[in-house]
């Protein structure tokens, strides 16, 4: 059973206290060593070196550039969800200089990281249908709270199967049809038990952003709500809730800034990570 609204027992991952270092690497058990494996392993090494040498020589003689495939932002971004530490994708603390109402500085603390999954759990059916053209290879997400613990925000990434033209077409469609402002295309929150966000459900969604990237095969999204689990009758997209002079309860509470700021922080971190992995060091 979820904890009563407002019950906060500290940061957690998968409903348990977070460990000092978390990664997405899955460890595998190592079988006991057997004596007969030594000679076999040596023979495999000799054979392997011969094959590698032959392949390298062949590539050199024929000029085969495929011997060392070039890493691009698209190929790299498609694997970061399982190849880099969780704390890199979703930092324990996010800082948003000037990201709050009136240009105030904001800081968000991670409450928990959800297990990676397909898109069926984190996206409503209509939003999944909207993203069908680019496919869903994997989805990762986490939930944060602000420094006052008055708001909670789920942020996530949909890693797609699309190429650059596919992502550009999706981005153009979102812009031309105003899809990012449609209430029936809001992402779902992640409400980890035993945290401040335990009562963060679909009816508590207050503000959101969905943004298909064009330089990477990723759709970044975020959805925010009140930490006291109150229901919100009229959710408002982050773009409208952050406009100067916005007077709705959602805008006045800064929940549009929460969704936008957390999404900005995660997106910027993703871009830096992909750049570091694809560009050679100077």
Describe this structure in words.
32% of the residues lie in helices and 18% in strands. It is of the alpha+beta class and 282 residues long. The chain folds into 2 domains: 37-67; 72-278, no CATH class. Strands 3-4-5-6-8-7-9 form a 7-stranded mixed sheet. A two-stranded antiparallel sheet has the order 1-2. Strand 7 and strand 8 (218-226) form a beta hairpin. The longest helix has 26 residues, at 37-62. The model is unreliable at 1-17, 19-34 and 40-68 (pLDDT under 50). Residues 1-33, 236-282 are annotated as: Disordered.
SSE layout and pairing:
Layout: E1 12-13, E2 16-17, H1 37-62, H2 73-77, H3 80-83, H4 86-89, E3 93-96, E4 106-113, H5 125-130, E5 138-146, E6 151-159, H6 164-177, E7 207-212, E8 218-226, E9 236-237, H7 238-241, H8 249-252, H9 255-278
Parallel strand pairs: 7-9
Antiparallel strand pairs: 1-2, 3-4, 4-5, 5-6, 6-8, 7-8
Core attributes:
282 residues; alpha+beta; 2 domains; seven-stranded mixed beta sheet; 9 strands; disordered N terminus
**Could you say how many structural domains there are in total?**
2
Low-confidence stretches: 1-17, 19-34, 40-68
Proportion of strand residues: 15-25%
The biggest beta sheet, please? 7 strands, mixed
Record the strand order, biggest sheet.
3-4-5-6-8-7-9
- What helical percentage do the residues reach? 25-40%
Written as H for each helix and E for each strand, in order along the chain, the element string is EEHHHHEEHEEHEEEHHH
Q: State the distance separating the first and last CA atoms.
A: 53 Å
* CA-based shape: globular
Q: What's the alpha carbon Rg, rounded to whole Å?
A: 22 Å
Number of DSSP helical runs: 9
